[in-house]
Design brief:
Elements (H helix, E strand, L loop, with lengths): L8 E7 L1 H14 L11 E7 L3 H9 L5 E10 L4 E6 L1 H14 L5 H4 L5 E5 L4 H14 L3 E14 L2 E9 L4
Antiparallel strand pairs: 1-2, 1-6, 3-4, 3-6, 4-5, 6-7
GO molecular function, one term: ligase activity
Keywords: Ligase
Protein name: 2'-5' RNA ligase family protein
């Protein structure tokens, strides 16, 4: 386990309650028991520096609440996720990426493919079966992005630290 002072921040998008409840129920249904240690989430960054400057910078981000489209399901090899599309979400990610570019890990520097994982760490066949089942009833839908949540990574579990709300329309 990493030393506590070395454990980074994680940044996620805050979903509206209906979407959060939906994805949480999907995760609870399809994620392997014992491996589902964190809430359903739309990741922005896997590692931001654990330092006061990160908190200060997050306070400067301004946005209005915006819509994001859940457009399709996709196969992860050992799991299933819902793809999310939003120009505003991509712009937000780009803005934050530019600020932290010099300290980001390779995973956060690569192309941003927003998604919400509802199953992971299963056999490819189990994932294919889940995908086939979920595709039967899937219809694209819209959700609202209400702000950003900052978490502290604790070697598996996450500890919620702050919410940065967006302005209501």
């Amino acid at each position: 386990m990493q030393e506590v002072e070395m454990m980074p921040y994680i940044l996620t998008s805050r979903l509206d309650d209906q979407a959060q409840n939906f994805f949480e129920s999907m995760r609870n249904a399809y994620f392997p028991v014992g491996r589902n240690q964190v809430p359903a989430h739309l990741m922005l960054f896997h590692q931001l520096p654990y330092e006061p400057d990160t908190l200060s910078y997050m306070e400067t981000i301004r946005s209005e609440v915006f819509a994001a489209e859940v457009t399709r399901l996709f196969f992860l090899g050992n799991g299933v996720a819902y793809a999310v599309e939003s120009e505003q979400l991509n712009a937000l990610h780009t803005t934050i990426k530019k600020h932290f570019h010099h300290v980001l890990i390779p995973q956060d520097l690569q192309g941003y493919r927003p998604h919400i994982t509802v199953q992971n760490k299963v056999s490819p066949q189990t994932a294919r079966d889940t995908m086939a089942m979920l595709l039967k009833d899937f219809e694209p839908f819209t959700m609202d992005i209400l702000g950003m949540d900052l978490w502290r990574y604790l070697g598996g579990k996450w500890d919620w630290k702050a919410f940065y709300p967006f302005d209501k329309l």
